[in-house]
## 1
Amino acid sequence: MKFRSPLVRAKGLGAAKSGVDHWLAQRVAAVALVPLVIWFVIGLIGQVGADYESVKAWVGRPVNAVLLILLLGTMFHHAQLGMQVIYEDYIHTNWLKIASIYLTKFAAYLLAVGASFAVLKVALGG
Amino acid sequence: MQSENRPLSPHLQIYKPQWTWVPSILYRISGGALAVGSLLLVYWLIALASGPDAFATAQGLLGSLIGRIILFGLTLALCYHLLGGIRHLFWDAGLGFHVPTAERWAKLTVAGAIVLAVLIWIVAYAVKGAA
């Protein structure tokens, strides 16, 4: 099927003119999340029934704190990209769609930074 | 921009449930559920950083019956979204589009997610019992 001109094919732009970066960013985050999530679930199972001090010690261990912050950043990045696609598919009122997308992005990064700060506070004993 | 009287494609409830589209919409729903559920992880970490009292409150809420039901639902959503996500990566590579193959992997993904989620909770309760 050669409906596209050589110029368009070379530039790699479809009708939407963009979207490949979004698609790719979501998948790169997804691949990174596979080991992070498996590590997190195993780590969390180890803390079931543990008291405040031992959970604090686990979260505060340098390797765990670093991986937790990476998990939070990657997870919320992936989540806001995914929610954007859902809004784009189902919300047909333009201003509401745009508002939902950007409010979700702001909220995602607020939550990621807030939770990461909590991890740092535990790790560094502020 | 909504034009009048344009033909609409049938909505989901018109279609017979099939092993192609049902897992597909479940994949999206599980992703949305996890996005909302991520609030609990943020709350739990902030409670931990806030001190023993706040952490005890968080543990009490998450450990209550309703808390456990929500957490089990999130475990199921996580397992399904993880396995389904790996399936999507195969599709992105152009593999597994043959309908019988897609249906077989759909069934394996659903079954695998349920088995994995139950297994995680069995191990978690075993760890709790040993603690």
## 2
Amino acid sequence: MQAANKSINYQNLFIYLLAFTSGFSIMCVELLAGRILAPFFGSSVHIWGSIITVFMLSLSFGYLLGGKFSTQSASLTRYGAIFIIAGITLLPIATSSTWLMEGIFLAIEDSRYGSLLASTLLFFIPTVILGMLSPYSVRLLVKNSNESGQVAGRLYFVATLGSALGTIITSFYLVLWFDINTIVITVSLVLSLLGITTILLANSHPNFHKSNVQRDIRHA
Amino acid sequence: MPNSITKLSLCLYVFMAVFISNNAMAKVIHSERSLYSNILVEDKGDLRCLKFNVKSRNTRQTCLFKSQPKQLAFNYTKQLLSSLLVNPEPKRILIIGLGGGTMSNTLHQLLPDSQIDNVEIDQSVIKVARQYFGFLENEQIKTYSQDGRVFVKRALLKKQEYDWIILDAFNGDYIPEHLMTKEFLEELKGLLSQEGILTANTFSSSKLYPYESATYKAVFGDFYQVTNQDNNNRIILARNNGLELASIKVQAKQNEDFEKLAAELLAIGVDVKQLYKDVKSTAINQDWPNDSPILTDQFSPANLLNIDTD
């Protein structure tokens, strides 16, 4: 029993680490968004308006979707898959943003709506998927209803701490050391690799999920 | 007792003196917080200045003499006019970064037939220029409240051309990083006519210097730098079709027209001979290392580089 508890704690730590990384990635990309859009839409205040709107909107949908998704046979494997998908959907920001923004620039004269459309096309999908991770993490961490608030609180703490660090490290240092595309691709790779690791871990510890279920029953 | 009264009155006197002289030195006649900066209009005797973000030590400003609004009060604006030594008659002029609009006014007075387009991101700056600096607009002088980069991209689409582009969008505290990249300079180059000239008011004393210089060189090849000891501005003067080494000197010998230009410039406080002395070609003395990295849309930490002065 003691050993089982320890292995569960280890898994939980890993989930917190993943939540931290997703928080970090969201704000890192959001900060770069301003730089990505500037060559086509400038750096007027409304550019940040577009970016923040799109990020908030997509996070809100992500929370909704992630919560819903977590009710249907939640597993660490599926959780890992979300990370991989998040990583993949970030890639077009590096590979296709230029021609996409060129097209929008030609089609829409008003830079308010141009930047809104551009940030929607570039950032909506990856941010929805990154947003899904928070409620899904809560689902994997919560063992009984009594501790659910504490677990959610801890998760928000870790994820938001990740966001804070993602913001400051990107704006203070990363942009000074690397190209924007290098940073985006690295974030995408890190998320995908973490996803793959999660899936491998889940499959090498098949007892993990079972022990969860057992505990649930015991508490009930 | 009498001693303390003397002390008190002395204190009061000093206090009053400081208060009065301060009042006479600078009087804030307008201040507002716009979306982009704190705008301040100050009167110092005959001098009226537009300042952004007061407390910064390297704040840039536009000033004019109220009694002689046609005189150029600031060194760097005079340095920008060095472009006229290369091409005395630009027909279409683009000014990015309005300030008080004094550059536009001066150029209209010197070149009454030329078209001038002003681009300024901050609507409040345009308003202040009109209200406090007599910024003139008419059939030939237009103002666009837009981000400089967006204006340039749109102008390229419309296949517009300019004989002279003045880039003066850096107010000292915050650098719009997308206006300093190789891609942006290429777009500006694309807007220039065959003989077109770009003059840019840039930085001369921070880690940014070699980066910025290398970026201009990557796009335009060698260029002229206009500097003098009195201020830490550097004007970059780049030509669309590259530097002909002697072009400035050649122009200098073109007698009649040139004499006329020199007289006109003198009337607004610009000494052409001094201006010549301040112009140096980077082909002859390049004061940054050859391997300096260039700024691109992918890599443009201009504000971070500008923090460290050395």
## 3
Amino acid sequence: MKNMRWIKSPLETTDSFIIKSGISGGVYFIDGISESVVATPTLIPDALSFISPEITRTGNTVSSKIDWTYFIKFSSNSLDSTGLLKMTLPDDVVYDMGETLTTVLVTNSSQEITNSKTLYTSGALNTITFRSVCGSSG
Amino acid sequence: MAGKEISITFSQVTNPPSTAPTNSFVFYSQEQVSGTYYSIDGIESGATYAVSGLGSITSATVTRDSLNVDNDGLKVGRATNFLFSFIISNQVATDGVFTFIMPIDSHAMIDETSTDLSCSATNCASGATVTCAVNSLTRTVTVTDY
């Protein structure tokens, strides 16, 4: 058997193993259960790791407009073209300037990838979701 | 009574032990002539009976373990072992079948690239050795030789 390549949370009612006993031939059944049978323990996600130089920025002056570059590495799990990469930042780290956030994939000729962002009430960036990361990288 | 519908209730009979349709009921109307019953109308085929509701399986748990080659069987995408534990309500014959269907998009899937799926059991009629077959299209593992 093999674990799924992603963790579904929360689980739905239909996300149950089905177990049935039956007579010879496997067509007709005797006892069965089809709800609330879930596997334990829950799955553990693999780690994404920062690789050197980890995080670089184009400026070091307070309140100046900068570019950030993150260097990360996937574990043994692949990410298909419809997958996404979601980053959560601590509050009060970088602030949204009210402009379009441009994200590029440095490892693929700086091809632009789509993103969406959410903000903390302070105006700082909360999450950035990158799409088509592996679709762009080929 | 000719041409009329007749309803007769039998009380306290027991349903069949599985969802398999029964053989046909046999009905005859008969008339007694000098102490002997002679058949008039009859039906011998097509009047089968089947139930669809299953008995209960209780205390069902599914436990995955980490004991694969890399000892990481709890991680996403890795090979793992599953222990199914449950209590059945009705007896299963030794040539019966247990069917396990993996849920969609969660928990587990059948590794199409692996040929070393094996299964074993405890508290079964034949001992610890059972036979399992996999259908990855239907996400089903069928266990026989129970």
## 4
Amino acid sequence: MSLDLLGYGAFFLATALSFGIICLGLNIQWGQTGLFNVGVAGFVAIGAYASALLTTPETAGRFGGFDLPIFIGWAGAAAIAGLISAAVGALTMRLRADYLAITTFGIAVTIQLLALNLQSLTGGPFGIGFIPRPFAAVQENALLFNLANLALILAVVTVLYLALERLLRSPWGRVLRAIREDETAALSLGKNARAYRLQAFALGGAIMGLAGAIQGHFIGFIAPDNYVSALTFQVWAMLIVGGAGSNRGALLGAVLVWGLWSASGALIAALFPPDQQARAAALQIAMIGIMLAAILLFRPRGLIGERGTVSRFVG
Amino acid sequence: MNPQFFADGLLMGAMIGLGAIGVTLTYSILRFANFAHGEFVTWGAYGTLALTGAIGFAAGSDIDAIGPFSFGWPLLIAGLAAAILTGLLALALDLILFARLRAKGTAIIMVMASFGASMALRSLCEFFFTSAPRYYSRDIQIAIEILPGMRMTPDQLFMIGLTAVLVAAMHLLMTRTTLGRSMRAVSENPALSSVVGIDVDRIVRATWLIGGALAAAAGVMSGIVVQIRPFMGFDLLLPLFAAAILGGIGSVPGAILGGLIVGLAEAAAVPLIGANFRAAVAFLLLTAVLLLRPAGIFGVRE
């Protein structure tokens, strides 16, 4: 029993941390640079599908199945998602901030549509199965399998976290925050705001794509239903709850909101009769929506939030 | 090409245009892209459904449909009441959420809050009414040939007529009345308008009421012609934004023209790319506008 619990704990934490990676990507875009991306689910989907196509064995009636190693799939996912983000950024960076929101929303809707209907590429509504899973050799032993995957995802999160912390402290990261706080001032210092925004958006998108690939390989199966706007919304709630601007906040928010989501799901399963559960699940999303709005109103900095960084030399 | 596509596009365009008027007004007067606008469409449609049911129950007996239409007077009254209620819903949302955030500043936080509100509103709708599609009437209407090769049902003709009336009324409101002129003034420059004595808060309230009511009208139309689903407004959101940006933010004629273009383009594209990809048309149009003329047809460069 306690071993089952440990196995579930590892599974839960691995899933939550995979969401945490998406949050880290969104934190570069929104937390550091102030870019509003409403199409998170779309970029995660791009990564998941790209990696699945690269790593699955050949399948009759579907393009791809290149049977490449998982790590190549991860890298490919990040590269493709990053490239598409750069294209979206190039299109919208010169316009008002809301246009980026609307365009990314459109991207997510369109990607979902393509995933659902381009049967020969994406497998259509049934998705893609048999995606190679890391440590598939120990798949029979659920506990060992979940713990090994948790360790792998934890390693990715740690590397990403340290790299991002370093990057955001670098001059490059300082320029991002300068542009977010006062674009005119940054421009007058000779910083090309559009280019920096574009870089930040593409980097964030690449990390989201990587997260999509990691999730796809962990579960071993992807379908268009995983990448609806509810996913975008969960990730936003995670970042806002944890505290936009802080990488630790992004990870904390991911674990907390995913915990709340899983717990409320279990509660609904226990309280409602089976025929009413689909209906009650709508309440879960409503709850997250109200929580997001409430945090924006009453605690806009989130739980951890960004530390004020005037200068380490000033008081 | 089959002329029938023109009838379908016109109908779809009328719905999109009505919804886009609300989007373009909130965008220009309140200065943020309201992602919750699609939910006003949905709530308007469901509100009408619930009220029609209530009136039918109160009246006791079956009420006959009017003339050739599939609906009777209860639907018209319920639709009007639901439009007012949806306007009040928009106003309430502003009161508890947007007004407070507006006081704090940045517009992009309001976009995010509207995103959260849209999720909550849609999910509540799904909870109350379940996700099963609903209909105002299950009667089957015979389409009449209005032009060679072009058929429309009486309901659809009524919708086109209603849209024309609403758009004409909106145009007169915006160009001939003090309220309309004040709304345009606030969208140009809120600080300056309050200096000349325009009550900006009143204009904001009027904007929500009008936007919500027109969204509800679009919802009822979509409910009569297609069906009522919790996701109907969400699915309409991208075409709404595309239409508002295509027409030029802040322009009422632009919104309706943009709506017609999006609707006709969708209808024309269906035979070419298949109905499955219909929703991508609005996105392609949006991308094209952002690339070629971000200010839209009637817009002015900022």
